[in-house]
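Project outcomes to date are best conveyed with an example. Our students and postdoctoral researchers have been running inverse folding experiments weekly, and each run begins with a structure described purely in tokens. The record below, which covers 292 residues, was selected by the lab manager from last quarter's runs and is presented without edits.
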């Protein structure tokens, strides 16, 4: 658990659950690929989390929780992940660590916090890990980021890579379309994954790529691949939790809605508003009577 903040367990709704088991470690995550190949392991399960309560609900079911820079859009209503800051990631990362006890927590390094140099990346990553208690960081990019992945890994900071559709590079890519449709682009994506795997990445997120490319990539690297809009043949899967819960009207085509929570929340709010306006709420059960 993070020691950055303390929680008043007598009054807080967000009291962390007691830890009945050890967290999944980064070496254990890395070993999962070999276990899957031997038929002894299951695909890795990862979802995003940005708050204590979400972490508490998702943690028992996940191997990894990703504090994604997607919080810029999901939590803050920003147009992309580009404006997200280290301060935002640190605050939400600490919350997710406090709310979890089983999953390995991975935190995104936001745009501008690691690209300048490996030394710059180390300073940013060290800050995030100190302030959050997270187990690892994630950064986007392929072969160009391999020296940075190696620099961090050799200095004790586990790194998860991210190739294919890289949202932080949306301005360069020209949009959020699938990648790997041409042979040249497909080869580049696979080479990128191989480069960061060789540099020491313990796992790689593969986003928005043609399925055949994701399958070939998974077979060509020795660390687990975690797909999002890729292939069921990846070594694991990740989704933005709010997408798969149906919190937004529009979601990417690769998202399966496992609930329609947005509609249910809206319906509950409508019922609440009606009860308030009709003075049906609060009722006798929700008010305090004077002592006799």
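After processing, the design step wrote out the following sequence:
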């Amino acid at each position: 658990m993070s020691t950055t903040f303390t929680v008043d367990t007598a009054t807080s709704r967000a009291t962390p659950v007691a830890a009945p088991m050890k967290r999944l470690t980064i070496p254990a995550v890395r070993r999962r690929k070999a276990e899957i190949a031997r038929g002894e392991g299951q695909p890795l399960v990862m979802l995003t989390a940005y708050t204590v309560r979400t972490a508490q609900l998702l943690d028992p079911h996940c191997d990894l929780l990703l504090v994604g820079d997607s919080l810029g859009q999901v939590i803050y209503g920003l147009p992309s992940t580009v404006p997200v800051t280290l301060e935002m990631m640190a605050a939400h990362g600490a919350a997710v660590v406090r709310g979890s006890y089983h999953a390995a927590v991975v935190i995104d390094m936001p745009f501008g916090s690691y690209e300048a140099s490996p030394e710059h990346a180390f300073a940013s990553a060290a800050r995030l890990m100190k302030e959050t208690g997270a187990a690892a960081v994630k950064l986007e990019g392929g072969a160009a980021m391999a020296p940075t992945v190696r620099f961090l890994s050799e200095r004790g900071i586990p790194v998860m890579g991210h190739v294919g559709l890289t949202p932080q590079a949306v301005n360069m890519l020209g949009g959020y379309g699938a990648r790997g449709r041409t042979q040249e682009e497909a080869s580049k994506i696979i080479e990128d994954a191989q480069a960061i795997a060789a540099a020491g990445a313990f796992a790689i997120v593969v986003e928005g790529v043609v399925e055949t490319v994701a399958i070939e990539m998974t077979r060509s690297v020795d660390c687990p691949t975690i797909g999002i809009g890729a292939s069921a043949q990846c070594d694991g899967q990740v989704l933005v939790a709010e997408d798969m819960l149906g919190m937004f009207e529009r979601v990417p085509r690769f998202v399966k809605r496992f609930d329609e929570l947005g509609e249910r929340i809206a319906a509950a709010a409508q019922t609440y508003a009606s009860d308030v306006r009709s003075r049906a709420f609060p009722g006798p059960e929700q008010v305090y009577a004077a002592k006799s």
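The domain at 26-260 is CATH 3.20.20.60 (TIM Barrel). The longest helix spans residues 261-277. The training component of this project remains on track.
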